[in-house]
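TA notes. Do not distribute before section.
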Amino acid sequence: MFADPDFDPSFDMLWDARMATAIDLSSNQVVFFAQNPMLHKGSRLAFVAPESHVFGVLRMFEIYYSMIANPARTHVFREMSDAVDWLNQPAEKGTGSTLDANQVES
């Protein structure tokens, strides 16, 4: 996705992990991904992960990601509606687009 020439790192992103039961990453791999930001500062990345193991790995990513110099804002949610509400809040910098939780496939 990130290699696609049409990918715009200034957009906000929603990562739906509701169907995931595990994420097979070591803590070193989580740190590596966090240290290599994929979005611009001012963008927002919302993760939805109701499963505790997946939620925990993504929270670890969120914490490491917040420590880099110019991170996008990230947050991990258990409920899709909470993630959509967060993304629909006015952003300091961003796309200004809105998302309806009904637009997201269940």
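Switch to the second chain here.
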Amino acid sequence: MVTSSLDSIYRADGAVFTNRSGHNIVGHFGNFSKEIEVLQNNAGLLDMSYCDRLKVIGDDAIDLLNRLSTNQLDGMDIGSVRWTILTTPKGRIIDVLRVARMEDHLIIGASPERIRNIIDWIDFYTFGEDVELVDVSQNTVEFSLIGPTAPLVLAKFVTGGKVFANDTCDTVQIAETSIAVIRSDMKGYPRINVICQSNVAINVRQSLFEAGKDFCLMAVGFQAEDFLRITLGIPIYGFELDDKVDPLTAGLLGYVNFEKGCYVGQEVVTRLNTYQKIKKKLMMIQLRDEVNLGAEIYSDNTLIGEITSVASVEQGQWNSLAYVKKTYAIPGLVCTIGSESLVEARIIAECSIKV
């Protein structure tokens, strides 16, 4: 089990830990409902270090990634952020990547425990290009400021009060420490990631709380962040995404550019879009009771889908994400979960990330 370099501090703060992709991470700090409230109204600070980080150096870095992934990366300005997807030749998802273009390198944010697959995939298609891949997951810490007042916290944290617009990044100096700041909102919901070396993480965390004391900044765990992303309908690897799912079925149309040149898997992805060949859609479903991941969804005794994520909203109500057969992916459709327990459910909306 992989642990955080800040575990002792989190334990002292009353953290309750949970497992996420082989990592022992903070589930919550003892008051889950308060953490959700803070994310919705103020700002929360989450340790995202369990996610993988890759530093890419070299003159051909952008060009190579552009030829391997779904979005248009050529022409990215220094200081910009873009999301893209690595796909297999069959158009299935290897991982969704957050690409931040710094002055002399790229910082790629990836899903937990996917770094080896990503490096191997890029290496396989590298033929003499000037590209160096450096796994920095173990020697860096990544904090995430999430919530409406997150930009205000950051402005006070950064010397000179620099304002970061959505999908921008930069390297800043805090007390002679070099820190990467990457803003990429969750469907319009402010989210700013701060990446630093592990040996200064305690000081950086303290500085963030100092900057956030006037904005009710509060430490939050994975479960509150998971509640927010399910409520917003955002899929993640290991739950909604894997190498059996294509970007269109997962509602990730906004991470695919259909005008760019060739990339691995392009033919399949383009065909799925042109001929509307997807067989199911990712939908948000409201439940009357808690259910297990993988629970089957029925409509008039017909199996129509499967639950992939669940989050409690309030007493007697849960939100979930689920893949549903396209012909039944209709907002308002009443269905049941399980063939015996018959938990009542209602399809709310299609999950999609658009340009």
